[in-house]
Design brief:
Layout: H1 26-41, E1 46-48, E2 58-61, E3 75-85, E4 89-94, E5 104-109, E6 111-117, E7 123-129, H2 130-143, H3 154-168
Antiparallel strand pairs: 1-2, 2-3, 3-6, 4-5, 6-7
The structure holds zinc ion (ZN).
């Protein structure tokens, strides 16, 4: 297992559609282990494969650092697809390991239904709400090349501009490894 450098805003791979996984082979399993280690090292609760430079449709979630959710099991979603969304929208402040130190209120559906395959190649469909729905939507966005600034009103995006430039320049003080410029 290894802690990998996390890609940050400005890295091209974060803006591309990831590729579907054909077989959950040893390489994929090793990637997933590294993703969990990298995410936990950075105190994250979700991480997409392109955040560690891997062009595959995979994300991992572990909500156990959140107060009250200590008993949650880690989740791996391979080739996820959001198949329905609630009409109810909620605003929650989000952060992102690829946008170090940036926080922004993002409005998204409160609940989603998602189809994916698990590490045993079983197809699953789950309904998620609350924190799980939020993290799934954020990570799914990564897999289609979208990030927080794409999901906020243009007024707010303008306010984030200087911070985004600093991130692109690696002008941020953080204690986890990120990619070189
Ligand atoms: Zn993110």
């Amino acid at each position: 297992m290894a802690v990998l450098p996390i890609t940050v805003y400005g890295d091209k791979i974060l803006r591309e559609n990831t590729k579907p996984v054909k077989n959950v082979d040893e390489v994929v399993i090793a990637t997933i282990r590294d993703m969990f280690e990298t995410m936990r090292n950075a105190n994250g609760i979700g991480l997409a494969a392109n955040q560690v430079g891997v062009d595959k449709s995979i994300f991992v979630v572990d909500l156990s650092p959140i107060e009250g959710l200590e008993d949650s099991d880690p989740v791996v979603m391979i080739n996820p697809e959001i198949i329905s969304e609630s009409e109810e929208l909620v605003i929650i402040e989000e952060g992102c390991l690829s946008l170090p130190l940036l926080r922004a209120d993002v409005e998204r559906p409160e609940a989603v239904e998602v189809k994916y395959i698990d590490t045993d190649e079983n197809e699953k469909i789950i309904e998620a709400d609350d924190w799980l729905a939020r993290v799934i939507q954020h990570e799914y966005d990564h897999l289609i090349g979208k990030m927080i600034p794409d999901r906020v009103p243009s007024e707010l995006k303008k306010k984030l501009k200087d911070q985004l430039i600093n991130i692109t320049r690696r002008n941020v003080d953080i204690d986890y490894p990120i990619t070189d410029k």
